[in-house]
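Lest this sound abstract, we let one protein speak, letters for residues, whole numbers for local backbone shapes, and leave readers to judge:
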Amino acid sequence: MTDFDHTSPRVRESLLAQIWKGQWLQKGPVPASDSRMVRVRSIGIENKDSGPDFLGAMIVLDDEIVTGDVELHVKSSDWRSHGHHLDPHFNSVVLQVVL
């Protein structure tokens, strides 16, 4: 099975995990939805179990170092549609990365 579903225009989250692991993103700071700048210091450890996708990541928001979990989604609305806002396993998420 590939990371792109050819029967529909949907990218699989497994592809997003590969992109995050390889940091195949724009190099340097990227803008967050609240207009702060985000830099990745450590991607964290990939979580193969339930809960956030990467645990213990370290990011820099503007000049503040923040440590916590990272959740990857194809769409920003996936946070609510997946029920993460109700699941205490996601309380340590400091960054949602959206395609």
